[in-house]
Amino acid sequence: MSLSKGNSIRLAHNYTSIVQSMVNRLFMWLPEYRNCQFIIICIGTDRSTGDSLGPLTGSILKKHKLRHLTIYGTLHEPVHALNLESHLTTIEQTYDNPFIIAIDACLGKISSVGDIIAGKGSILPGAAVDKQLPAVGDMYLTGVINVSGFLEYTVLQSTRLSLVVDMAKTIAEIVVAIDRQLTYQEFKATFGKRVL
Q1: Cα(11)–Cα(13) distance, integer angstroms
Q2: CA separation for the pair 113, 88 (Å, rounded)
Q3: Which helix (H) or strand (E) holds 178?
Q4: Whole-angstrom Cα distance, residue 103 to residue 60?
Q5: Cα–Cα distance between 117 and 113 in angstroms, integer?
Q6: Helix (H, G, I), strand (E, B) or coil at 86
Q7: What is the CB neighbour count within 10 angstroms for residue 109?
Q8: CB 142 within 8 Å of CB 112
Q9: pLDDT (tens digit, 9 = 90+) per residue, 37-86?
Q10: How many CB atoms are located within 10 Å of the residue 95 CB?
Q11: Which terminus of the chain is less hemmed in, N or C, by CB atoms within 10 Å?
């Protein structure tokens, strides 16, 4: 199942070709790798099953030796409501031209649970539970982990861990594939003219 609306794409996390389909679309939205530094902000907390999607994805990504992507937000060092603004300030002060990809959990319709949504632009973390947080990201990957509309805090707490883990693994695969594609583009730009 696929839903594409120009600046966003939505696929079920267990869709057979999700990694390649997402990477193909996301890569078109990325700026030239030599003109910016890519930052992944995995938002959420390990204190809530549903809201652990971001930090869990960050922890998985930290195990990979990514060449072009810097990771913020893991299970041990989460980026959440209380420290999000300070992390954003640090990133702005540390990097000359950061391009931020935000990863977060979200709530949606029952038919959308299990979908991964990618898009251009920013997200508003905490919006589902009425938290006033700054918009984050130049691009985003969100996972619909449960149903919205009623007792959101309880819904986040009662989300199945198995779904969150499966979605985190898939999002991590997408991010790793993006890093490999950036590495290939760098190699091609550096050595392409020498290859016969």
Answers
A1: 6
A2: 29
A3: helix 161-191
A4: 13
A5: 11
A6: helix
A7: 11
A8: no
A9: 999 999 999 988 888 999 999 999 999 989 999 999 999 999 998 899 99
A10: 15
A11: C
Domains of the chain with bracketed CATH: 2-189 (3.40.50.1450)
What is the structure's pLDDT at 48?
A: 86
Beta carbons of 36 and 67 less than 8 angstroms apart? no
Q: In whole angstroms, what is the distance from residue 102 CA to residue 72 CA?
A: 10
Q: pLDDT class for 187, splitting at 50, 70, 90?
A: low
Which residue has tokens 């420290």? 83
| 27 or 61, higher pLDDT | 61
Nearest-angstrom CA–CA distance, 124 and 131: 9
Q: How far apart are CA 67 and CA 65, in angstroms?
A: 6
Tokens of 137: 């990201």
- Residue 193's pLDDT band, with cuts at 50, 70 and 90, is low
Q: Which two tokens stand for residue 72?
A: 């913020």
Under 8 Å between Cβ of 55 and 167: no
d(CA 111, CA 159): 15
